[in-house]
Amino acid sequence: MANFEFTNPKFLWLLLIIPFLAFWFFKSRKKDQATLKISSIKAFKKQASILPKLKPILYGLRLLALSILIIALAQPRNIAVTTKSKTTRGIDIVMAIDVSGSMLAQDLKPNRLEALKKVAERFVNERTNDRIGIVVYAGESFTQTPITTDKRIIINTIQNLQWGDLEDGTAIGMGLGSAVNRLMDSKAKSKVIILLTDGVNNRGFVDPRTAAELAKNLGIKVYTIGIGTNGMALFPVAKDPNGQLRFDYAKVEIDEALLKYIALQTEGKYFRATDNKSLEAIYEEINKLETTKIEAFKYYNYSEKYRMLVLFAGLLLLIEVFLRQTIFRSLV
User: Fold this and answer.
1) Other C-beta atoms within 10 Å of 257: how many?
2) Which of 53, 79, 129, 241 has a CA positioned 20 to 30 A from the CA of residue 279?
3) Which of 150, 95, 103, 31 is CA-nearest to residue 282?
């Protein structure tokens, strides 16, 4: 019934007259029957007919036909709805991720890098209509995965992120520059970089402010995230003879002024993630800020039912006329 409707439902109010017509018929039907008073009906008992008792069927057929015609006036119909969606505004996103040794700090659980990987994977899964690329950086930077719509490749890249593949350090300018370079030739109407770091720019030959200026000129919005608790955190400080990392407490240092500057210049936003929960909330907010516009087209196919009702009502009237002129003719 969810796909059924009446085009002109006001006509259904006419059905209220049907009970009054039925009442009027049964009230006055005795006037239509001839009567003969005799002293005895014994001679007629064997010839008694059931037809007089069935005569109300004629009026019942007429009332039913009238009711069906009223329903037909209301134009009942079924509606088949099909919906097609079209993405009208695509977003190209590059995630520039710091993979320096300090990302192994344990102020986020189990460490910053693993916490990020979990949140970033969920973020990618929710961006079903966008293209995403991955840039990694430490003391140097490179494109881990070009911009693509294949979410399996992106997620696989995120899951395999690890420390030690790049020269250590924090080259924020180079990481941002590589991300900008990925989006330089993008035809998307909206271009976004999510730049995450846990330190201070101390390596590389690209000034972060110069990279921010280039992003601004290309219409690229940069969301910056500083990851790390306030105060002290367990950092990897050395390796044991057997290759195991040794951890010790050190002060968390994040160049928030630089990250705020980059975000402000590119009309983005700066966030600070001090624990796992706040990191999740940041990516959720970015997900809400950068929405993909989708147009939904609905197509309606109407199947009119009133014709069938009119034919049925006409058939009932024909049956009524036929019975009145044949079987019930002597009773009319």
Assistant:
1) 9
2) 129
3) 95
In the chain, alpha helices (H):
17-28, 51-54, 56-73, 112-126, 151-159, 172-183, 208-217, 256-265, 276-289, 306-325
CA distances from residue 289 to 190, 212, 282, 295 in whole angstroms, order as listed: 12, 20, 10, 18
State pLDDT tens for residues 133-174.
Answer: 999 999 999 999 999 989 999 999 999 999 988 999 999 999
Half-sphere exposure of 81 (CA within 13 A, CB side): 9
The total of other beta-carbon atoms located within 10 Å of residue 105's CB is 23
Pairing outcome for strands 245-251 and 232-239: antiparallel
- Burial call 76-87: b when 16+ CB within 10 Å, e when fewer: beeeeeeeeeee
Across-strand partners of 134?
A: 95, 145
Q: Which two structure tokens, joined as six digits, stand for 4?
A: 């059924």
- Say if residue 146 is preceded by a cis peptide, omega within 30 of 0: no
Closest CA to 149 of 222, 220, 93: 93
pLDDT at residue 218 greater than cutoff 90: yes
